[in-house]
Protein 1
Amino acid sequence: MSIEFKTPLHVGTPNIGDRTLFLEYVDQMFDRRWLTNHGELVAEFENQLKDYLGVRHCVVMCSGTIALEIATRAMGLTGEVILPALTFVATAHALQWQGITPVFCDIDPETLCLNPAEVEQLISPRTTGILGVHVYGRGCDVHGLQAVADAHQIQLLFDAAHAFGNTLNGKKIGGFGECEVFSFHATKFFNSFEGGVVATNNDALVEKIRLMQNFGFSSWDRVDHIGTNGKMTEVCAAMGLANFQSVDKFRAINQRNRDRYAQRIETIPGLRLVEHCAVEDRSAANAQYVVVEVLEDYPLSRDELMERLHAENILVRRYFWPGCHRMEPYKTLHPHVGSRLPFTEDILERILLFPTGEAISMPIIDRIFARVKQWI
Ligand code: T4K
């Protein structure tokens, strides 16, 4: 039988907005001969993001990872920080890279995000913060986590890399905790090639973040703090500004694809589509990850299904298998941590993420599932 798709279908094929608009911004950039270091496009991008996310400050960065590192450093986090293991490894690396110990905590099987009661159990005298992750764009129990943070006088921030534009009980993600960090990597729903942003309502924190992202410079010849280079370039801001005009279109495409996946998956016993948000947050949800659970009554194991799909050029992913705690250096540093993460380990053995975004259409989804149906 011939391979189903000649061109591979990837999870993470970029969405690309109005190319003419992008090139106009790039022309302006060349005309000004201002390529990076807080140019006009970066300033405009930050303003638009601030309005969109409904926060007082947005600082765009060269990547989501660097944004996380700078945010946690500016917050003064040290010692131990509690986070989930069901996340991209960058969340843990951003801490470990600065000598902070990531303490992996189990998820709530309902939210797939940090379970506040479990977080509380892991607080030690060395704990300075909680780093929640709105995994797959699903919102954390932000109020439960804030209550734990307040009770123990520690700080809370969120990795919102998957949640751009999403709401939680109708409130835009971006303004919870001390700050929230988004990624604008090429594979994200909304991208600036590479990039990220720290969103916050904390005036003092944003000052530190701005210093730290620019080597600590407060003026031409004055350095007030240790810092690094976390700046976003003008060409990335141009991509961000151009793509920003298409955010509603990208969301509509993802929601349409997601609904089609739901219809097709419903007809297949043993496969279940993971809810991407609560009902009241559906209209805002970016639906950038189509997460499917392969249950015990499905005739193939998750990995067998993945191999068959890969053989057809349908490049589904097991994000975030095997879990950060089973990747280095965490695996060696904390070899037994998996035993306290039963829900995390369980879900990691069952999930497969399917491609979506602009490059995926309803006929493509139908063809994927015509193939899947042949295997049951
Ligand atoms: N926190 C969380 C929760 C995150 O998910 C991430 C990033 C971060 C923090 C860190 O943010 P950044 O520092 O990245 O801004 C990809 C992305 O590189 C990563 O940004 C993302 N999460 C993660 C979930 O996915 P990989 O290692 O899986 O990428 P890769 O190279 O396998 O690409 C994924 C697929 O996308 C490939 O099958 C091909 C396709 N692709 C990729 C690129 C770059 C394209 O079709 N075109 C492209 O230009 O991590």
Note: The chain has a mean pLDDT of 97.
Protein 2
Amino acid sequence: MSIPTPTNTTPTAATAATEAAKPSNFLRQIIQNDLDNGTYAQRRWAGSPGDAAHHAKGQPDPAKIRTRFPPEPNGYLHVGHAKSICINFGLARDYNGVCHLRFDDTNPEKEDVEYVNSIRDAIKWLGFDWNGSATAEPYQASDYFDFMYQAAEYLIGAGFAYVDEQTVEQMRVNRGDFGKPGVDSPFRSRTPAENLRIFREMRDGKHEDGSMVLRAKIDMASPNINMRDPAIYRIRRATHHNTGDTWCIYPMYTYAHPIEDALEQITHSLCTLEFEDQRPFYDWLLERLTEGGLLASPPPRQYEFSRLNLTYVITSKRKLAQLVYDHKVEGWDDPRMPTIVGLRRRGYTPAALQMFAERIGVTKSDSWIDYSTLEGCLREDLEAKAHRGFAVLNPVKLILTNWDDVMGAGHLEPCTQPALPHLPEGTEPPPPRHFTIGKEVWIEREDFEEVPPKGYKRLFPGNKVRLKGGYVIECTGCVKDIDGVITDVLATLVPDTKSGTPGSDLVKVKAAITWVGVANGVNAEVRMYDRLFLDAQPDAGGKDFIESLNPNSLKVVTAIVEPSLANALPDQKFQFERHGYFVADRVDHVTGSKPVFNLAVGLKDSWGK
Ligand code: ATP
Ligand code: MG
């Protein structure tokens, strides 16, 4: 196996968002300290994960630090994982290190290639690669089962582990609680030879599932309950997707995880705060195995940061799966889902998610981040990138009654508008948008009032407005059907006021409205998404989050959009002027037939009067 070179900082979307000054945080300080003190300077790396002897044959590790992202492939990644990805891959990138992608598959579960692939895709899409290159294979924790077994035999031989045959209930009672020290198991004083014999019988399938476990022998009186002889191996007859039926005993997560980190020469093992109580065992185990010469020294260290809690959002794979399987949403990639595939389909960009991760920072205190912080990042990213377009979401027809006289019957006048209006000086603008104006145009129903409320500046009889990028028009009235519903708004064109022509601004107006010509407007399906939950903390305190589902989280409208939007490519983002940012759907959007756009995020400033 060749030796991976550290990820370099090629200018991907991932780096773009972080080029600005990066605020320090406690993790950066820890890493900087370790680099200054040369804590890991003597480490060697043999090009692949392995034990002490394996790495001793390697060269000095070219990666200054090694971090890892270790998902369990049991669901789709969500915005909380995005935070963890940005932290782990981002730190590796910034400190000339490497971040490993490791599938934490020590639970014998059915392989779900769907999840494995979606996790790889999500990380790549966010702009990162793993194990030192974009083409490397991710690591799999189940590849380390042999070593884990050897390490368990070592612990038994050294008097650090024993086979316990107490029932689950006896073990629970004898573990004690916060106020009460635990009680030694009657099996605790077995000799190493006896333990080794029975442990091998466990491995060889001589004992029933659940009849006994291997436990670390530490301290039943420890104030930290996790140190009261935690179970490290259990019997479980289950076929594993990677190792098949080779094993009928499987390591517990708390035992497996530190070993996985150490075999991979991880320097900084970053996890969320709920693992804080596990750290003493993490350190205890790696101390035993490094002093025994099984694992390279110095061992990795675990550091905890607070998990992301986002208002109106659920970040638990299990609960998100429930939404999918109960058909509360249309799938993992429903644009209302906080999954990475859902966010992507909603119009989120890697740069926006990177910016979000930077902005919320890394701390050790649990808090809730307001959803608007995430939306703000998307707006900020799209503002300079998303091409503009006119879309009329709730159309009513406007008839220019003097068009035939002034412009000629059937005449269509070409108009243009910039695709990106506020480019920084010296930037080459993209080609402008082209569309036409004729006798009939679509306008928003709310842009006409027969009797204007106070301060209303748009169309009402006698008032002039500009059709943005077109002409100034003067409203003359409207036509209604027998139910009193307005079918047409009537106006006259004010000649010589075409946008961009000399003297066009001599006629003053107080408002400009968006519009689409009837002759070249395109019907489009527009999906107006709102938050999925009405409750800001839908699952806090064990609440039933299904109860706070927002019944109006999706409204589908048929809109009329300008012709430039008819050829939008899936995933392409736009600003529909005055309405917000939209993305051409990646699943249902078909150019040629009716295009589909998803609302990504509204505009910050609501449309004026
Ligand atoms: P879930 O409860 O959604 O299944 P998990 O923590 O069990 O999440 P894993 O696949 O084990 O999911 O997580 C991989 C990594 O992502 C872990 O290091 C975990 O700490 C991190 N992670 C998961 N959820 C969040 C979150 N909300 N904020 C930050 N990091 C998270
Ligand atoms: Mg988990």
Note: The longest strand covers residues 472-480.
Protein 3
Amino acid sequence: MQIKSAKFVVSNQNVSNCPKTNIPEYAFIGRSNVGKSSLINMLTNQKNLAKTSSRPGKTQLINHFLINDSWNLVDLPGYGYAKVSRSQKNIFQKFITNYFKEREQLISAFVLIDIRHSPLPIDIEFINWLAQNSISFSIIFTKCDKLKPNVIQSNLEKYKLKLQEDWEILPNFFITSSSKFRGKEEILDFIGEVNLSLEKKSNL
Ligand code: GTP
Ligand code: MG
């Protein structure tokens, strides 16, 4: 799928204020600093559509971006950022989990995982929470430019083994690097195919 247009729509902290349009939506979630906003810029061919920072905690709101005037990408705040106060952390967690529970337009989430780390409890907990709540998701491994191919492969295998402790069916995986534009076509083609299947269903 080609991205012909990508426009910022709205930021807010409350799922009830998210756009009322009834178009498919895909959300990016993961630990702070994992590269969610960078990936959105990479996918949309824009440098500053989503705000990025080398310091964790940059994205603090639910941000909607309208793509090709027909579907939404959503940039979310990261979880697991230790430096925000406990009360603020709770607010983040609540409005993030509310978004996933209540947003009917959400078709699928992408959980971003930094390929350099072995499976972290916070990521496994979040993945398990999505699965338990029947929220469809794929996993995107980020920052693959930072490792050699054999290390990428062995870290990927470790992740699969960890998930197999809890789940029989594994989600889709994407291997990406925003700085090297790796994984772009695979993710966009995946979204394109899902959008097409939704269109076909609505024409039945
Ligand atoms: P929060 O909004 O704080 O939750 O972070 P985020 O997940 O949106 O991360 P962001 O996109 O702001 O990126 C965090 C840092 O990682 C920035 O310094 C990016 O330049 C860097 N980064 C993101 N993706 C990649 C990548 O694929 N490769 C490399 N080498 N660096 C990356
Ligand atoms: Mg961000």
Note: The first strand starts at residue 6 and ends at 12.
